[in-house]
Specification:
The structure is a homodimer. By secondary structure, chain A is an alpha/beta fold. Chain A is built from 13 helices and twelve strands. Chain A is elongated, with a radius of gyration of 26 Å. At the A-B interface, helix 4, helix 5, strand 2, helix 10 and helix 11 of A face helix 4, helix 5, strand 2, helix 10 and helix 11 of B. The structure holds a DNA duplex.
Amino acid sequence: MATRRPRIQDVARKAGVVPSTVSRVLNDYPDVSAETRAKVERAIESLGFRPSQAARAFRGGRTHSVSIMLPMPGTEFYARLLTGIESVLDEHAYSAGLFPLLTLPGLERYRDADALPYRADGLLLASLDPERVFQGGRPPVALPLVLVDSRHPAFDWIALDNAAGGRLAAQVLNERPAETFVILIRERFDTPFASGVFNERLQGFKAALAEGHGRLDDDHVVTVEFSASGGGLATRHILEVARGPVNIFATCDLVARGVLEEGLRGGKTPGSDLRVVGFDGEEWTEGAGLTTIEQPIEEMGRAAARALLVRLADETLPPRHTLLEPRLIRRSSA
Amino acid sequence: MATRRPRIQDVARKAGVVPSTVSRVLNDYPDVSAETRAKVERAIESLGFRPSQAARAFRGGRTHSVSIMLPMPGTEFYARLLTGIESVLDEHAYSAGLFPLLTLPGLERYRDADALPYRADGLLLASLDPERVFQGGRPPVALPLVLVDSRHPAFDWIALDNAAGGRLAAQVLNERPAETFVILIRERFDTPFASGVFNERLQGFKAALAEGHGRLDDDHVVTVEFSASGGGLATRHILEVARGPVNIFATCDLVARGVLEEGLRGGKTPGSDLRVVGFDGEEWTEGAGLTTIEQPIEEMGRAAARALLVRLADETLPPRHTLLEPRLIRRSSA
DNA sequence: TTGAAAGCGCTAACAG
DNA sequence: CTGTTAGCGCTTTCAA
C-alpha cells in the first residue's frame, strides 16, 4: 500500500492549523507566530512533506529552476562556467537545465513559447547573441534573461574584458619585439555561436601593439579551427615563413598547446626564439610553462547566477553590466 | 491591454461546446464526431490556443519532456548522439533537457526526488551506469529509464557491440602481422562516467588477434588521456621501442589522429610501416585516410529515444536490449 | 456522442 | 496573527 505523498492539507491537519498557514510558513511569510511556525515545521518534518513543484508552477509561482542555453563546443570553459553557475544556484535551492544550441535546427526547437527551456523562472544565455537566438531579439516568453560571455545593451550581462586581455598579451610580447603573429579562432557563422570574443582579443592586441611601436601585418593573422592541431598547423606554416625569432599570440590555450608542441618539434625554445602567449588560464598551462591570460571563469558563472537571482526578485531593474578583468600569468613561454 | 492567453474554456465557448469536449479533441479521443472535432479545431486555430503544460503536469498528465543525463566530455560523440535523440523526440512533440554529470557534487544535486531532471516523463542515461548514478541503482522517482551507450539488465538499453568493433580492428591488422600495440583511453573513476567501452574494444581485439595467431603483449597496451596529444605521446614512445613495422589500434579516432600525426612526423608511412585503425567513424577520418570502426551514433540516439517513447506508453514491458553493430571503414591507413 | 461536475496542490485576497 | 474561500487550466469520471 503505497501511501500517497503528503500534501499541504495533511501537514495542516497534523499541525492543527489551516493549509494557508502552512503555505505561509513554507514561503517565509513574516506574520506567523514563532509558536505556529514551530508546530508546522515539526509536522512538515515528521511527514517528510515537500511541496509539489508541479502545483507551484501551475499556480503561477516559481519553479525554482532556470534554463541555460549554450553552444556546446566541448571545452573546459563551459565545464568551469557551469561549476560557477551551479554553485550559486545550489545555495538558493535552484536547479538548472541545459539546452545546447549547436545547430540551426536546434534553434527552431526553441522558438515556441511552450518549449521546455521556457518552463523555468529565468534564462541564462552563455556565449550566445540574443539577436541571433531569438526572433525579435527576445525570448518568446517574457522571462528574466541574463547573458554571460556575451553582451547586449538590453539585458544584464557578465563578460570578460577580452580586449584588455589582448592588450596584456601585446605588452608581454612587446618586451622583445620580433616578427609577430596572431592565431585567431575561426567562429562558424552557421551556428548561433558567434560571440566575437576572439576578435575582441585580436583588436585589443593590435591596439596595444601599435602603442608599443610593434606592428601586426594583416597576413600575420592566421585563422584556424578550434583545436590543438589547428595551432600546430598554423605554427608549422609560420615557422616556414619567418626568418628570425617569432612572437605568437594564440587566442586560446587549446590552440596555444599546438603551437608549443609544434615549436618544440621544430627545435625552437619557447621563451627565447619562440615566444608564446595563450588565453584562458587552463590548468595544464602551469605544467607546460605557458604564459597565458587568465579568465575568472567560475567567477563569471557565479556573477551570472547571482545577477539572474537578483532579476528574478525584481524584474524592473535597469540592465546591469559587469566587465571582469583578465589577469596575466607569467610563465617561461614569454 | 495584454489579453490573457486563451484557455480551454475560451476554445469551448468559441466552438459552442463544453471544455471537456475540447480536451477530448486535444487528446485524440475516438468518440468525437467529425463535425464537432472540426469546429473545435477551427476554434483552436483561430485563437492560437496551446494547452498549458504547467496545468497538464499538475493534473498528473504528461509534461512532454524527457531528461537526458550525460557526462560532458565534450566530444563529437555526444553532439551526434543528441542529434539522433532529438530528431525522434521532435517528431513526437517531445523536448529534452540536459543534465551534465561531470562531477561527484553534480550527483548530489540529483539525489532529491524533486530535482529538476525528474520533472519529466522519462529519463535517458548516456554512457552512465545507473548503479553509480543513483542510490539503490534506480532514480529517486519511478520514472521510465532508458540507457544508451551503457548497459544494465534491469533497464532498456541501446549500445554498440564494442567487442565486435575490436574484433574488426584485429582482423584488419592481422592481415599483415607486425608488432602490435593498442592505445587505450584512460577512464577516470572519480566521475560517474565509466562505461567501460574502451575496455570492451580491447577485449574484442585481443580475442580476435589470438584467433589469427597474432599476439598482444601486456606492455603493448598503452593507456593515455582522451586527446590527440595523448595518442601522439604514446606513439612517440611506441616508435622508440619498436624495431620493425608497427600495427596500432587506437580505441578512438581522436587519439588515432595523434598517432597519425606523430607517425608522419617520425617519417612513417601510414598503411605500410605504420598501420593504424581508429574507432568512431568521425568525419575528418575520411580526409585523413584513417581506417576506422564506425559507430552508428545517430542511430543509437534515435533508437534510444524510440525506446523511451515506447516505454512511456507502456511501463510494464520487460526490458529490451539493443546491440548495434559497428562497421569497418577501410581506408589507406590499414 | 456530448455535457456537468469534481478535483489535482497550492497560494493570495479577504475577513475576522 | 490565522482562518475562509476561491481559483489557476486541464482531464476524468459519471450521467444523459
